[in-house]
Structures are given as C-alpha cells and as structure tokens.
Amino acid sequence: MNKNFTENQLIRFLGRLGNKWGTGHDSVSTILRKTKEFIAQKKDKIKFLEKVVILLEMLEAHSEGKYEIDDGSLGLIISALAYLVLPTDLIPDMIVGIGFADDLYAFKLVFDQLSFEIESFKSWQKAELSKIDKASVED
C-alpha cells in the first residue's frame, strides 16, 4: 500500500466504500455491529475513537427511526465507519505507529464535512435527554 496518500485518494477510497456498503438496513446493522466490536477492542489503544462514538450514535438513532439523516451524510458516516474497521485500507492498520494515521485523517475529513449535522444531532440528543428527564420527574 502507498504510505504517501493524498486527500483525493482518501476521498475516492471513502466513496468506493460508501458505494460498496450502501445505506440499506443490513449494511447499517453490519457497520454498527462491527464498529461497536472494534471500539470495544481498541478504545484504550486508539485515542480518537472517543470522537467516533458520535457518528455511531447518529447511525444508531437513524437505524432505529428516531433521527433522520440525509443520504449523503449517511453515506459519509457509513464510509468512515467501514474505513475504520477495514484493516487493509490506504495504510494497513497493522503497521505499528502509523497504521491508524489514515483512519484519523479520514475522520477529520468526515467531521469537517458533517460539522453542522453533528451539532444538530447533539442538540437533538440533548432535547431527547431533557424529555426523558422531565418524564422521569413526572412519574
């Protein structure tokens, strides 16, 4: 694999992953499962995974029909999560020290692209928690 990748190569690779995985229910379920397993195994070793959780939460809320995500954003989220769990991407993950550098960069690109959607989701989450808190006080 080429260790000197460009942003365009990474974007094209993410696009191919998005096309491969699609946005159907089975794809979303598989990505959710694989990403949760990956995070559980690697969370202590890879620092940026704590930030990845928001994309996982967005995808999960969408798959449960609780939160709407447009197809473009959904494709980006699925692509980024698929890229994370794919061990042989632009820089294979097994290369000690740099194996996850491309994954980190991929997530930076996705977070930059989805910053508005992520903030909207966080606001929605906060409102949902507020509803739950109010309901528990009323009980």
Automatic annotation (TrEMBL):
Key words of the record: Membrane, Transmembrane, Transmembrane helix
Annotated GO CC locations: endomembrane system
Coiled-coil blocks: none
Keyword Transmembrane: yes
Keyword Isomerase among UniProt keywords: no
Predominant subcellular localization, coarse grouping: membrane
Pfam families: DUF1232
Membrane topology recorded in Swiss-Prot or TrEMBL: Multi-pass membrane protein
DUF1232 domain ranges (all copies): 75-107
Record InterPro entries: DUF1232
UniProt-annotated location(s): Endomembrane system
Protein name: DUF1232 domain-containing protein
